[in-house]
Here is the input.
Amino acid sequence: MKPELVVLDMAGTTAADDGLVEQSFITAITTVGVPSERHPEMLRYVRETMGQSKITVFRALLGEESSARRADDEFRRVYEGLVHSGRCVPLPGAEDTVRRLRADGIKVAFTTGFAAGTQHAILDALGWQDLADLALAPGPGVRGRPYPDLVLTAALRLGVTDVRAIAVAGDTPSDVLAAARAGASVAAGVLTGAGTVDDLRAAGATHVLGSVAELPAAVQG
Here is the structure.
């Protein structure tokens, strides 16, 4: 079945941010008073949950809602500043992949674990505001990965006729799980970000690709 929709993760899949998540995270938890001796254990959790909604990660680590929101606000401020300074760049072949898919009549949606404002900061920095058909982030009524909401919301908004006609690509196990839970026939893991071959296979990846540039051939045959 030729896909009607391809859902692409951003950081680690289509864009490289060179460790900015961890850098911004350390600043955020320091701001809310987390002592430095707790930073390594928290960073391990951040790495394990890459791809998931950042506010959800802060809630799990900090417990108190006010602290989680303060940390999330600080994370966004720092990360978006680094993005605007030129620290986020397209991964090789990513833009060509999106253009190739759309030229073949396949709709493309960008999804992320970042807040909508951070996602738009990345799109602005890369000049990708109009590259895809849709950009989605977690928010009210749309849970982040590994829930299927982002994939299914993209399918509804873009008029997909069958969830089996969806392909998803991302660099984390959370991306793969979200794809499987949404019923996508392709749940591709890419090796340009946080996930390893073993991580992605264990999450149920249908394909493990060296980069997103390999995706058109994988989904179109």
In short: The chain has a mean pLDDT of 92. The first helix runs from residue 20 to 31.
